[in-house]
Amino acid sequence: MIAVLGSINIDLVARSTRLPRPGETVAGSSAQSVPGGKGANQALAAHRAGAAVRMIGAVGRDMFREAALSILDADGVDISAVRHTEKTTGIAVIMIGEDGENMITIVVGANDDLTEADVDKTLTAMAAGDILMLQLEIPAKLVEYALRLARARGIRTVLNIAPATLDVPYLAPLADILIANETEFELLAAQRLSSSEAQREALLNLHARNGQTIVVTLGAQGAMAAVEGNILHADGLAISPIDTVGAGDTFCGYFAAALDRGDSPEIALRDAAIAGSLACLHPGAQTGIPRHADIRVHTNDPA
Ligand code: RIB
User: Fold this and answer.
1) Are strands 2-5 and 177-181 parallel, antiparallel or unpaired?
2) DSSP secondary structure code for residue 97 in this structure
3) For tag attachment on the chain, is the N or C end more exposed, with fewer CB atoms within 10 Å?
4) 303 within domain boundaries
């Protein structure tokens, strides 16, 4: 079983030929409101990858809450641990340019209302070996609390250090598995990494500190990971991305689901890299998340 402790947002997405500069207005070509939030996206991805998933989160009692939960609910993610609070549902205002570049502003709203009691309720019912997955769009103190409780109970933890915050240095060592994109990985390594050799060296050094599995997503170049003293690499698919929002979350969900199933880190990395690529082929963070059958088309694994 996988529990995801994290954010649930509504994404207000505007597309334009190019992103505006500060103080500038540009004409948009489309606008949409779609379900999102790193926590919710990762929960959905893990579920679509075949895992039993419970979402621990919070939404407001407002016009956005139903829409924010609609895809999780329709797909069958367990949302019984999602609480309703008096704040507004989390909102991400996302601007996307024609080249796929994006800018995001997040108003955390109800995501900020998650409490230790919310964490306790689910974690005390989990078994040793189950997986808890987290990101950084909820209070850092709660992430710390959940990581410590999970460790004490033998629950495996996957921390996606996104978005990169100043809390990363003290939270990162508390997780069993870290997932970062290249920018987040630089923050973790506390240095600029301008070549793939420098990335590999930093990855091995960080991994050597405490044996933690560390995964770095590399965009079009796939992903690499340091696991038990080795560096693994998996390619993504050669694609022309339409929308990269949620691709990292898809990667995380697929990676966790593969580990939950007992797959090797190599297979987990391979499936996650393919899933992350496929997620870029559709607009919307959640609508683009592939199903496991879509991954098998590329791996030739039996159903
Ligand atoms: O990772 C993508 C997500 O980040 C979006 O769905 C948005 O809600 C922000 O949280």
Assistant:
1) unpaired
2) E
3) C
4) no
For a ligand 1 pocket test, name from 13, 41, 72, 289 the mutation site with the most ligand atoms within 8 angstroms of its C-beta.
41
CATH code of residue 266: 3.40.1190.20
Contact 216, 180 (CB under 8 A): yes
d(CA 298, CA 22): 42
Catalytic residue list contains 249: yes
Q: Does the pTM exceed 0.70?
A: yes
d(CA 8, CA 20): 27
- Burial status of residue 45 (CB atoms within 10 A of its CB: 0-12, 13-18, 19 or more): buried
| Domain, as residue range, for 18 | 2-296
Protein residue closest via CA to atom 6 of ligand 1 = 36
* Ligand 1 close to Cβ of residue 184 (< 6 A): no
Domain for residue 193, yes or no?
yes
3-class DSSP state of 63: coil
> Does an H or E element contain 116, and which?
helix 116-123
* b/e code 125-137 from CB counts within 10 Å (16+ = b): ebeeebbbbbbbb
Ramachandran angles phi, psi of 182, nearest 5°: -65, -40
Rounded-to-integer distance, Cα 295 and Cα 284, Å: 19
Give CA–CA dist 6/4, Å, rounded.
6
Ligand 1 midpoint to CA 209 (Å): 31
Averaged pLDDT in 10-residue chunks for the chain of 303 residues: 98 95 95 97 98 98 96 98 98 90 93 98 97 98 98 98 95 98 96 95 96 96 97 95 92 98 97 97 93 92 80
Count of domains forming the chain: 1
Does residue 49 form part of some domain? Answer: yes
222 touches ligand 1 (CB under 6 Å): no
User: Quick check: is 167 in a domain?
Assistant: yes
* Of 118, 243, 249, 271, catalytic: 249
